[in-house]
Amino acid sequence: MTWTVYLSGEIHTDWREQIMSGAKALGLPTVFTSAVTNHDASDAAGDVLGTQEEGFWRDHKSSKVNRIRTKTLIATCDIAVVRFGDKYKQWNAAFDAGGLAALGKPYITLHDDSIIHALKEVDSAAMAWAQTPEQVVEILKYVTSNQ
Predict the structure, then answer these.
(1) Range of 97's domain?
(2) Is the pLDDT assigned to residue 51 strictly greater than 90?
(3) pLDDT tens, 2-26?
(4) 126 lies in a domain?
(5) Signed CA dihedral, 7, 13, 19, 25: sign only
(6) Could you tell me which of 139, 147, 74 has the C-alpha nearest to residue 108?
(7) Calpha distance 70→120 (Å, rounded)
(8) Is the pTM of this model over 0.90?
(9) Is residue 13 part of a domain?
(10) Strand, helix or coil for residue 116
(11) Inside any domain, residue 57
(12) CA distances from residue 143 to 64, 138, 139, 146 in whole angstroms, order as listed
């Protein structure tokens, strides 16, 4: 079986690349998907539908266009990793975690211990909490193994 792993959350560090390269180095049977991680492209996703004077409506249109991708990829994943960084509030990642939980999709949260309290509900629905991309790779190694 090839596992589809959805990578959600923070876009300002290379955690996605670390997980993907770690899985590749181990030859894990994984395919990775993600939301659009180019911030400017994501913000402009709805611009094709017409320009807006107010930022709220531009964000509203773009979030709906972006949601086509994220909703589809979440629905079709086998497992997800939801990353929360310390620099920005990743409300989108929390929303994704809620959607994953509602669908009964297993997910791993990835964050440091400084935000444990803020993420207690998100973490309580997760199958695991990892603090490093390397820990995520080890979890993926275990769950995709035939041993």
Answers:
(1) 3-38+77-143
(2) no
(3) 999 999 999 999 999 999 999 999 9
(4) yes
(5) positive
(6) 139
(7) 23
(8) yes
(9) yes
(10) coil
(11) no
(12) 33, 9, 6, 8
